[in-house]
Amino acid sequence: MAKRRRNQTLYYLLLGLTLVMVMFGIIMISSASSILAFNQQKDSFFYLKRQLVSLSIGLLVMFVLAKVDYRRLKYLSYVALFIALGLLGFVILYGKSAYGSSRWFMIMGFTFQPSELAKLSIAVYAASILSQKPKWAKDLKKLILPLGVPILLAAALVMIQPDMGTTFTIIITVYFLLYLAEAKGWDLVKLALAGVLAGGLFINFAGYRRERFLAFLNPWQAPRKTGYQIIQSLYALGSGGISGVGLGLSRQKFGFLPTPFTDFIFAVIGEELGLFGSILTILLFVAFGYLGMSIARRSTDRFGRLLAGGLTAMIVAQALINLGAVTGSLPITGIPLPLISFGGSSLIFTLAAIGIILSVAKRGKREPLRRAKNESNNMWRRDGRPRLSRVGSGRGA
After folding, report:
1. What average pLDDT does this structure show over 35-51?
2. Of 90, 114, 190, 310, which has the maximum CB count within 10 A?
3. pTM for this one?
4. Among 335, 336, 331, which residue's Cα sits nearest to residue 211?
């Protein structure tokens, strides 16, 4: 009973933290997008309204998935992955292009990004494979066909869009799932080295990626070209000081900072709320990672443990990539800050992932109790305590 109560506590803590983060994101999107929204759409709340619609859908999806037994997703993941791969191929041919990428479908005035579905479905699919065949993690050769091929196919389709940030997120998520599945240390080292080599080749053989990487190393070499985004982001973070210039008073969002309410919203947070606001944002993701991993650790079901851990790693990895790009610690990849940046697809599927984690928190400790009840021929009370035999209760005594 104590363990079940702890899981319920984690459930409500993660739910509360999620709601705090999305509300914080709504406030910052309202502040960061108002100027561009008025200039482009003649409506200062244009992007805020769209985000609120996405938030409503995302919360509905989250609460529905939190009520669904996560074990049902084990086999649905095959269908979801197949659909995601099909949409990834379709969007390359017929998707909406922007900023040199073809990543979106336009549906009733809203954009849909198939790579967000791909991230989620791959995490669930990988957790399903590794939970059904636990010994395969010890011999990665056995995972080449069932796991390696679909993941590499998805990563290749995402790279063609191109979207290197999402590709990195997918690879990191699967890598962490292999770690949780207790893959051999040397195999993990070889995979990491192969990933670094492949990343270097992708950067070197694409001119714009090479320019971004060189700009990351020294943005002042081309301050008006490839280094412009990083420099403007650092200006915003630096001008915020300790306490910030004040909510809504950012100067960098007046056309200087590119996409201030999407990929670079953390720079606006740093400028308006200062070092305190920046540290608070980071601590929110630290707390999210801690709660998600605590839920994974407390789950007695292998699939639930891998599922909660993998989805938590997916969200935290995306946050780290975004924060690294905005602060100049990593090359710019064009990936939003989960739960906080503007972006309908990102928000909806991130909330869907959190709904699944909540489902694990809600049910991860109940399965052994049910099994014990069945095996002991109803020798357990409803509260989980064993029934005590009564002296002289048998007939003829």
Report:
1. 89
2. 310
3. 0.86
4. 331
